[in-house]
Amino acid sequence: MTARPTLARLTALARRTLASASYTAASFVASFVSVSLIARGLGVEPRAGFFLFLALYSPLSTVMAQRILLSIYQDERRSRTSAWIEEGLQFAASIAIIALATDRHFSVFESVILASTVFSQIHATAAAGSIQHRTGNASNWAGVVLAMAVVRIAVTWVLLGEGPVVAFSAGSYAYLLAMLAVHRIVFRSDLDDAGRHADDEANRSRWIDRTASLAFFAISAVMFQVDKYALSGVHRSLELASSGALTLLLLSPLSLLFATLYRTRTRELFANSTGAHGKSPVVAAIAGQFSLGTLGYVGVLAALWSSAVMLAFPFLSVSAAAVALFVLAIVADRLGTLIVFALRSWRHYLAAALWKAASVAAIYLVVRSVAGWQSLEAIYTLYFASCLVYCLAAFAIIAVWERHAET
Q: Mean pLDDT, the chain, as a whole number?
């Protein structure tokens, strides 16, 4: 008698997970294939400039998209005026960062165009996240959302001959318009409709929450990238290239897995009506699924290491110990973040951001200035130590919270 309800629950969970994977993978697939198409046709210097831009594009779009998605999951209301001011400031900052970092490769006008693609990406991601979180039939729209990746890839491919700036930006704009069109069909309302009736006073009262979460996402975006800047500063090209390849092989897929899993339970994880202690079962379930998924992925990666992995990255020089340390660091970091999501207090976001900022600074200084700490094993030991403390501290907070709730 209990077999059928259990099977039904598992089927529903699998359906939600598959749908979540579609929403999460749409942007990843669109970006990955578009970048591959563009990079293959470029010379050495243009390719270097393009990837230098992408090194900025990825953290900027990730930070801003995560912040908007979090406001969607928490049903946060924002006034139109506040949203425009925040977007304007972020856009100006993006232009400045991209222009200064890529001035040898792109003109100021091209930098403005490239900066605008950051916002195309974050609003396309926000539209997909809104569909997934705010509609009761997200599974039915998952295939449509995933298919929008084809729009970006097709436009990029058609305009390859016009240069990387035109191809990349046109593909980004097409992807945004396609995703907004799907959103309009689903809701038949504007993307920011849920926040239009918020008053400025209520918006001002939550500026601390937005600032703390933005700081948290900003630091998190560069957490596992800081070693590359440090290695570049001491001219350790071999270690830098290996670290970059390992980041693509481990950090990106595991981050995608984490996002897929927690976005299947956003209503429970970010619920306003449930305290942190009431979210423990959800946190435990997601943590278990993520740990098992990570173990499975690492197993597949190990099986393919001597063939596909080394064929793709023949320059990769890394020990099994370094791989294990990096995987453990990523898992500890994501589990700590999962608990911070459940706590959903600006104080916890700020505390996590401060700890990560201190860790980033310490890792950079050690790798840059201390002889013998430029090996990947040493670097990933630093990452793991920092992330383990972060995870244990978050776990201790939620454990204390639960005991307090019981009493």
A: 79
pLDDT digits (tens, 9 = 90+) for 139-160: 777 778 888 888 999 999 999 8
Residues 230-240 have pLDDT tens digits of: 887 787 777 87
CB distance 390 to 329 below 8 Å: no
Percent of the chain with pLDDT over 70: 77
Q: What is the pTM of this model?
A: 0.69
Residues 17, 19, 20, 22, CA torsion sign: positive
Beta carbons of 94 and 111 less than 8 angstroms apart: no
Q: Which residues of 326-361 are buried (b: 16+ CB within 10 A; e: fewer)?
A: bbbbbbbbbbbbbbbbbbbebebbbbbbebbbebbe
Stretch among 144-148, 337-341, 368-372 having the lowest mean pLDDT: 144-148
Angle separating helix axes 80-101 and 108-134, nearest 10 degrees: 140
Q: One-letter amino acid identity for 8? A: A
| Tokens matching residue 172 | 């980004």
Q: Compute the distance between CA of residue 155 and CA of residue 162 in angstroms, rounded to an integer.
A: 11
Phi and psi, residue 159, nearest 5°: -100, 15
- Cα separation of 364 and 9, whole Å? 46
Angle at 308 between CA 302 and CA 312, to 5 degrees: 120
Give dist(CA 293, CA 257) in Å, integer.
8
- For 116, the token pair is 């605008």
Q: What is the pLDDT of residues 174-204, one digit of tens each?
A: 989 988 888 888 877 444 444 444 444 445 4
Q: What would the pLDDT profile of 64-121 be if each residue is shown by its tens digit?
A: 777 677 666 665 665 566 666 767 777 777 777 777 767 777 888 888 888 888 888 8
Distance CA 401, CA 276 (A): 7
